[in-house]
Predict the 3D structure of the following.
Amino acid sequence: MNSSWVTINLDKSALEHNLSRVKEYAPAAKVLAMIKANAYGHGLIETADALTNADAFGVARLPTAIELRHAGFTQPIVLMAGVLSEDELALALEHELTLVVHTHYQLDLLEQAKASYPLWLKIDTGMGRLGFLPEEFPEALKRAEAITKDLVLFSHLANADQPDHPRNQAQIDLFLALTKDLPYPRSLANSAGLIALPGIHFDWLRPGIMLYGASPLENQSAKSLGLKPAMSLYARVIVIKTLKTGDYVGYGSRYRCDKETTVAVLGVGYGDGLSRVLDEAAHVMILGQVCPIIGRVSMDLITVDITGCNVKIGDAAMFWGEGLDVAEMAASANTIAYEILVHVSPRLAI
């Protein structure tokens, strides 16, 4: 939904392009497109519709998978944390979902149901989060094989966005040792891994952030990777005023004008998902002009310095999109592009 104050656009052709870039990195591998968290803030159904050439979808929550089925998507849908109850398992079976299994409790549920499901068996090789520990894996595999032969073995790297981190190789070596000679497809690469660690492409890729046109690596921009931003966010100028030297801007009087300053107030704020901790290093683009954010971000408003710029009421300020990498906004908030994108408020729904 685009209001008179804020416009958020989804470029489906950019999503399609970014998926093609994923496939260029590993043409022989299948693609599990990660569309969890409302497709990283981009809109679940709209994004899935643009990514129908992916081999499967990955989601975090059962209601998301069911929503996709009700919308008519027939691709395999992998429920990345699996199910936690008999009721959830029944719904997963009804909607023909592929389940991740990472605990013996989940195997108990599957055995009791006496049904055969396609499964992704997760191994904890060092993330310390979900997955069977190495010493648990042989028994878990034996139990999973008794349920189905449609298995994928996978793990998750804790430091794929830092390709030279020594823990990467330790996790890779452990994954290889545990899965050696097993007759099942394997998966280890997320966005960062498939770009920076070509030796771990294996059979299934699990791209997330790069599908949306953002780089997973600090030292490489999205543009340098040939990615296109799928989302752009604009806010209208609703007020322009000139402040005197010594005047203050925003809550807490944190920003003091050190000269006569022309400011524009934009109709967007942390109520729309922008970070309250954005500082003067953050900027927007208005008609190609760089305008720094000044003062504290409010719930519905942000102030920018437009001194010397040709700006009028109603002009659109771009926060990220074509020509302004979301990574810049993320760095100014001391966070990552993932968080900036997924925090876009439902009141700005695409």
Notes: The chain has a mean pLDDT of 95. DSSP finds eleven helices and 17 strands in the chain.
